[in-house]
Amino acid sequence: MILLQVEHIEKYYGNERNLTKALDDISFQVDGGEFICVMGASGSGKTTLLNCISTIDTVSAGSIFLESADITEMPEKSIAAFRRDNLGFIFQDSNLLDTLTIEENIALPLTIKELPPDEVNKRTLEIASRLRITDTLSKFPYEVSGGQKQRGAVARAVVTTPKLIVADEPTGALDSKSSRVLMELLDNLNKSLGSTILLVTHDPVSASYAGRILFLKDGKIFNEIVKGEKTSPAFYHEILDVLSLMGGDFPC
Amino acid sequence: MLNKLSVQNAKRQAKEYVLFFATMLGAVALIYSFNSLVFSEAISNLMGQASGTNYTAMIIIAFSLIIAFILSWFVSYMMNFILRKRSQELSTYMLLGIEKKQITKMFLMENIVIGTAALAIGLLLGFLLAEILNAMLTGPFGGAYSLSSGFSLQAIGLTLLYFIMIYLFALIGSRRKLKKMQLIDLLHYENRNETYYIKKSWIGNVAFCLSIVCGAVSLYVLLKRPFGNPMDGYTVDIYIASVLTLLCLFGIFSGLLSFLHNTLGKSKRWKYRKTNLLLYRLFTSKINNMGKFLSGIATSFTLAITVFALAIAFSITAHKFVELEAFDLTILHMGEEYDFSGYARYIEDNSDVEASHVYCLYTSYDSAFMDIRNQTATIYLDETDSYLQAETYIYKENRYDTYMKFSDYCALRDMLGYEQVDMNENEFIIHCMPYLTESYEDYAKNITGISGHDLSCAGIYTEAFSQYRGYGNGQEYILIVPDGIAEQMDVLYSLFVANAETSFSSGFLVALNNGFDTLTFLDSTSLSSIGVSDDSGFLSKLSYNDKDYISGKSAGASSGQELSAILPLFYLALVLCMIGTVILAVQLLSENKKYIRHYNMLNIMGLDKTAMEKMAMKQMLLYFSLPALPALVLSAGLISAISYLVFTSSFHVPIFSSIAAVVISVVAATIVLFLVVYCIYGFVSYISFKKDVFIPFL
């Protein structure tokens, strides 16, 4: 079943004299329960794409459908409600609120949805236990490590069981071990809960956890590879091959 | 190059930090306007005629020195805020290789440019403010009001001196801070003090409960005054209550955090309902970081409100004193009918006198009406816990019932513009202060005559008639009888009264006094304004037997004395209030980045614009009511106690129909005024907060 359909989207910045084309006629589909990754060098348009899909930014042309709803035509008033009901966000620097404990940060989107307090508490504890962060619940973000913060952020993103989880460089600020733990967590969520994940990264290791990878170059889709039955190491090497083909400056 | 950068930055800073600039403007305008008052002729005349010395000027200078000190602390705070705001930019300069010395110089240059601009514009504003204050203050007191012809050079000089003092103090502080600062400090300066710390112990709960108890006891002490003594004006009670108020304000905010943390914070049912969680955390993180800071603001508000109310109470008292004096000028000659023509000629030649009248007051040495007056006054003095006896507060000359001829009464009513009254040959009229009306009505019904004459009461009148504090038309009452009856009595004293078209200038009164050896001011010394006791046990203000005494609206001592307290009090209240609100707003602005982050995240998580605006509104309401609420409650107690004491100790008989009503009106007026100003300020802050926080992502 198709969950997300991106049709010929374009995004321009600047004015007539100095026009930058950040996204140039991009089209693709994402099925429900899929783990898809968008890769590309800095300035390739991957974050712009993610922002457009997640309604943080608007497109200059084209349409984006989530299930049957065209989010590019959505009135401004209902966009916030759309995000609240359909999307979960994970950012590079976790973006947990400093003044709230990890537990409260996880509960926050549920309180925004105005669920009954008992339900909020139940779901917060459940997701914390599933993500094995129960021991950090009463701590404030500055009291825990980067990896724990990111797991808190993942918990916050998935606690509302959104249709689509968008993750923008979630491992960008983590060391390799924490990155691995986090990516295994996302992989697990995808497999056990069937969460649809759209990951943006330039790290091939993180990308190798995805089922499909779109490569962006100069605002266009340059290539697409599917993991299929391949093992992660094999898939990793395939990614590296594409990257070298693209001539990008990616780490090995 | 660096100078150009500096000027550009100063310009940009002036735009960005309007609040700082406006505050500097306000400070300069206030200092100038009050300094110019000190040197204004109208005010100094008003003071001089009243007390002989210009001691209000000295009080104001002393006050303005204290205020200059407070302002210099405040300017340092604001410079520090700007330093914090621009730390990133300054650290970038350092990273680019500009020397610290140059950066320090640039930062100081900017502040000097801003300061100079504020000084120039502030002086202009101050000039306007001074004119308004001058008109407001001299008008009601009957002083010779004239618009000053232009800028007062002395005031400009003094303002410059204060301003340089204030600025130097702040600049030296900033310079030292910048000099000591390392690049790493500058890079992280903005994030400083953002550590989050929670007191988990029971101490917070106890502190909160104790501060509530302190506040409650303070209010009890103020309203019931259990410790004090009426002789010393309940100073013990006021001191105890003030200390308790300070203790309450000191502990209440830090305590509140722990209390909320231990109660609401632990209740997930409460916390997870709607937007409670965010507000609770914004609220407690604020208290946590700023417990003492909020205490300071609440204290400055409490002080400002109390001082302001005190000024209002003094102002009401001073106006009442002026109002009770019906005539602009009165000259009293003791014991006999007197020819005032010498004085009258001088007055006619040298002033714009509008009307005058010469008459006598008479006595028959009986005291039936005085006894009623004493009974009524005793009830009032008992009610107000006064240590005075009604009998002791009668001047020797007024101890018997005082009489006036009906023809004189008609002439005086005409002179004062009161409606004319009728009286038959077998009637008398009582003219008294309002508080005696009821007692005299009852008494007059039951008598068939007065002073051995068969007379019935034709009416009681209560218009202002120079009856308070004696030596006018009787002590609080006078009996008006047909001329023939009065002529049979002994003359108590004779009076010359005059009203001027505008009012008699203080210079004229001094010249009049100096022009005649036989004249002196009735309230020329503090001793004579109270009176000295003689062998008979009665007080008298008349210390010389061979002198005639000047009194009246234009020569009243009390207006000058009260005025000398009112001015510095208003000054202090304004400055305290201004500092409190500005720091509150600045603190809010300095945390903008944090709030932008918060609201941005909430928006991404799906909180819509309306909900966010509602939340921001709630947040602002909490933020602004937090320090104001305890300040209002505690200062309402302080105000009511202090204004009650001011009214009861200023007047020894009931001047107001209900003292409680006047006290309530003072409390209400002060609080409403404060709230109006505060709400406008809060609203402006809310708008700018909304603009700053929401615009980046909406």
Q: What is this structure's SSE topology?
A:
The complex is a heterodimer of chains A (252) and B (698).
Chain A: E1 2-14, E2 19-31, E3 35-40, H1 46-53, E4 61-66, E5 69-70, H2 76-86, E6 87-90, H3 102-112, H4 117-130, H5 146-158, E7 164-168, H6 176-193, E8 196-201, H7 204-207, E9 212-217, E10 220-226, H8 232-246
Parallel strand pairs in A: 3-8, 3-9, 6-7, 7-8
Antiparallel strand pairs in A: 1-2, 1-4, 4-5, 9-10
Helix pairs in contact in A: 3-4, 3-5, 5-6
Chain B: H1 2-16, H2 18-39, H3 41-51, H4 55-85, H5 87-95, H6 100-138, H7 153-180, H8 183-188, H9 203-224, H10 235-262, H11 268-271, H12 276-324, E1 329-334, H13 341-350, E2 353-363, H14 368-383, E3 402-405, H15 406-416, E4 427-432, H16 437-445, E5 456-461, E6 477-481, H17 483-487, E7 490-500, H18 506-515, E8 519-521, H19 526-530, E9 532-533, E10 539-540, E11 548-551, H20 557-590, H21 592-604, H22 609-650, H23 659-694
Parallel strand pairs in B: 3-6, 4-5, 8-11
Antiparallel strand pairs in B: 1-7, 1-11, 2-3, 2-7, 4-6, 9-10
Helix pairs in contact in B: 1-2, 1-6, 2-4, 2-6, 2-7, 2-20, 3-18, 3-20, 4-7, 4-20, 6-7, 9-10, 9-22, 10-12, 10-22, 12-20, 12-22, 12-23, 20-23, 21-23, 22-23
Describe the structure.
The complex is a heterodimer of chains A (252) and B (698). Chain A is built from 8 helices and 10 strands. Chain A has helices spanning 46-53, 76-86, 102-112, 117-130, 146-158, 176-193, 204-207, 232-246; strands spanning 2-14, 19-31, 35-40, 61-66, 69-70, 87-90, 164-168, 196-201, 212-217, 220-226. In chain A, the strands form 2 sheets. Chain A has a 6-stranded mixed sheet, with helices on both faces. The radius of gyration of chain A is 18 Å and the shape is globular. The two termini of chain A are 35 Å apart. Chain B has helices at residues 2-16, 18-39, 41-51, 55-85, 87-95, 100-138, 153-180, 183-188, 203-224, 235-262, 268-271, 276-324, 341-350, 368-383, 406-416, 437-445, 483-487, 506-515, 526-530, 557-590, 592-604, 609-650, 659-694, and strands spanning 329-334, 353-363, 402-405, 427-432, 456-461, 477-481, 490-500, 519-521, 532-533, 539-540, 548-551. Chain B is elongated, with a radius of gyration of 32 Å. Mean pLDDT of chain B is 78; it is low at 49-54, 142-147, 191-198 and 525-529.
